[in-house]
Design goal:
Distance between the termini: 74 Å
CATH superfamily of the largest domain: Alkaline Phosphatase, subunit A
Number of strands: 14
Mean pLDDT: 91
Strand order of the largest sheet: 5-4-6-1-7-8-2-9
Number of helices: 21
């Protein structure tokens, strides 16, 4: 009996094999076309990665051959995933056109291909330049700046924009030509099929879930799955940027909900212990209600400040002024963008790895503001910025803070001779004139812009060189020159003796020397207290701190209650904890006199680990977890 069943089963299998063979013969052209079209997209994404590697040759040149090779191999996982998305859609078009000849399919597939080739070419080429400046692959972040496109592209030279558009068009047109050359006739000449074809392509379309998810494992594919090296750039090169943009957009609303490292009670307790402070504060001002001016310096990294161990020739005026005030020589930026730095300085609120609170006016309206606290005790409050106040959603933040704003709209067109707006020397003159006219205590904030790309400054070139490093250094020299002239005049004014100035950078920068995005050095910035209201000069504070510590440090000096600044600490307290916490795009770090820790969220690994213990690592993670919980609850 079993023998008969076995023979019958063999016969059935043979019949099925024959049927599937006949189906394959009848559908050979469509099946072949489907997989050739899949290969077309795979090759497109591989070439896109090679373009990225070629464009960023200063970083690529530092890779070993093994890292270069493996970046391309590991990157195939995301290439295949994105191809799966595309072919899932294409497979459905094969289903619905199974009963038609190829002309109908071509009318659908050709515009589909050209549109996506154009969009993907734009993303791939734009990402090459963005990575060179930002140090991370494109995600949803640029959307924050698209509300003010003229400001968003102001940091790029006109010739660079032209070149990028040209590269994008070449890439797009070449890819479109390949599609037209190799696929048009094949598609048009397809014969009509039947319902069996429709069923088979429905099955094939459904099976695209496998490459989309990255296999049959429990966890779906994510960016971290292509990370393979201790070299951050090698991992970044493996990422399919189009996939990354799509993933980031799809998870835009939930990006800050995934940092749960421990029980919330444990995180809160660890965080509270870190911020415990109980001790006498050094009083460094000679009056209870001095005028306060904060000067936020665009991209002023410590690498260009001579007194901080940087290049001595770039900021001679800052170096000189540091001996006339109080210098903080272990000071760090909270984040890696201007919008994050501004909120850290004026609200004491830390930067988030994958978002920026300034995007959400409903959240920023609940932040504490130095401006509002000082306005309550009759200070006038003003913010000066020579650019477009709409950039990066700054308008809503300063409106919530009750600032009067002075922007490029308040100047003559002849003064707006920078791509960003008004150059620094004009803004410093405006600040000086307005202070001269003040008839009450004032709190003013000036944000410089001339040391931002494209580094076009109205000054004879002092630091020669046509490369990006030297252009940046020359622009910083110009801003430093403006600082020197401003303080030469300010020190002669009557209001000088009742005023304190805080000079601090908005963030660090990769220039000069292309410092990696996850390097602690990239976050080190200057902070300097100046003014006639100070009781000390030529003083250096060695306590580690960051931008978020400015509000509590300042308000304590003014004798103002400051318990709303949960994340801020008083750097002038004798028992102040000495550390700085910072974050960058999908990573965060912690630095003190005995510890350096940087954690990458994608790989869940430490890229820098010097002097740590498990307790230190818990402390670092608790800082981020408490921050994100606070962010989500605002």
């Amino acid at each position: 009996m079993f023998k008969v069943l076995f023979e019958n089963l063999k016969s059935i299998i043979k019949i099925l094999i024959f049927v599937f063979y006949l189906i394959f013969i009848l559908m050979k052209k469509r099946i072949s076309l489907f997989f050739e079209y899949s290969l077309f997209w795979m090759i497109f994404f591989i070439i896109g990665r090679l373009i990225f590697l070629a464009y960023n040759y200063p970083f690529t040149g530092k890779l070993t051959f093994s890292e270069f090779f493996l970046a391309n191999i590991y990157g195939l996982r995301l290439d295949l995933s994105l191809t799966g998305y595309i072919m899932g859609i294409v497979g459905l078009t094969f289903v619905f056109t199974s009963f038609s000849k190829g002309k109908i399919l071509y009318k659908i597939l050709s515009p589909f291909t050209y549109i996506f080739l154009f969009i993907f070419s734009f993303i791939i080429i734009s990402d090459c330049e963005l990575y060179r400046n930002w140090g991370f692959r494109m995600d949803s972040t640029p959307l924050l700046y698209l509300r003010t496109p003229s400001e968003a592209i102001a940091s790029v030279n006109a010739w660079m924009i032209v070149m990028l558009i040209l590269f994008m068009l070449i890439f797009f047109l070449a890819s479109a030509w390949v599609f037209h050359k190799f696929f048009k006739n094949k598609i048009i000449q397809l014969p009509a099929n039947n319902y069996i074809s429709a069923l088979i392509f429905l099955f094939i379309s459904s099976s695209m879930i496998l490459p989309i998810r990255g296999g049959v494992g429990i966890a779906p594919i994510n960016v971290g799955m292509v990370y393979f090296s201790k070299t951050n750039y090698a991992n970044n090169a493996a990422v399919n940027v189009v996939w990354n943009v799509g993933y980031s957009l799809a998870n835009l609303k939930s990006t800050n909900k995934s940092f749960n490292f421990m029980d919330d009670k444990k995180a809160d307790k660890t965080f509270a212990n870190l911020y415990s402070e109980n001790g006498e504060t050094k009083k460094l001002i000679n009056t209870d209600k001095p005028n306060v001016v904060i000067i936020i310096l665009e991209s002023f990294t410590s690498k260009i400040i001579g007194v901080l161990g940087g290049r001595p020739e770039v900021t001679p005026n800052f170096n000189k002024l540091s001996h006339e005030g109080i210098l903080f020589d272990n000071f760090y930026a909270s984040g890696d963008r201007s919008d994050k730095g501004i909120v850290a300085i004026l609200s004491g609120y830390p930067a988030q790895p994958t978002s920026s609170i300034i995007k959400s006016p409903q959240k920023t309206q609940n932040l504490p503001y130095l401006s509002r606290m000082l306005a309550k005790i009759d200070y006038s409050t003003s913010f000066y910025y020579g650019g477009d106040i709409n950039f990066a959603n700054m308008r809503s933040y300063f409106a919530n803070g009750g600032f009067n704003t002075v922007t490029k709209d308040d100047f003559k067109k002849s003064d707006c001779n920078s791509k960003w707006g008004v150059h620094d020397h004009i803004m410093f003159n405006k600040l000086l004139d307005d202070i001269d006219k003040e008839n009450q205590k004032f709190f003013k904030v000036l944000f410089t812009l001339s040391s931002h790309e494209p580094f076009d400054v109205p000054m004879k070139t002092i630091i020669n060189g046509d490369d990006e490093d030297n252009k940046f250094l020359n622009s910083a020299y110009y801003t430093d020159k403006c600082i020197g002239k401003f303080f030469d005049k300010a020190q002669k004014r009557d209001w000088w003796k009742n005023t304190i100035f805080i000079l601090v950078a908005d963030h660090g920068v990769r220039l000069p020397d292309n410092t990696p995005i996850n390097s602690i050095l990239k976050f080190k910035i200057p902070m300097l207290f100046l003014g006639g209201a100070l009781t000390k000069q030529d003083t250096v504070i060695h306590t580690y701190g960051s931008q978020i510590d400015i509000p509590k440090t300042l308000l304590t000096q003014l004798g103002i209650k400051n318990d709303k600044y949960r994340f801020s600490k008083n750097l002038l307290s004798k028992t102040s904890p000495s550390f700085a916490f910072f974050s960058y795009n999908n990573g965060f770090g912690f630095v003190s006199d005995s510890l350096q820790l940087v954690h990458d969220n994608v790989t869940n690994k430490y890229t820098t680990d010097i002097g740590s213990t498990e307790k230190n690592k818990d402390t670092l993670k608790a800082c981020l977890q408490v921050l994100i919980n606070d962010f989500n609850n605002r």
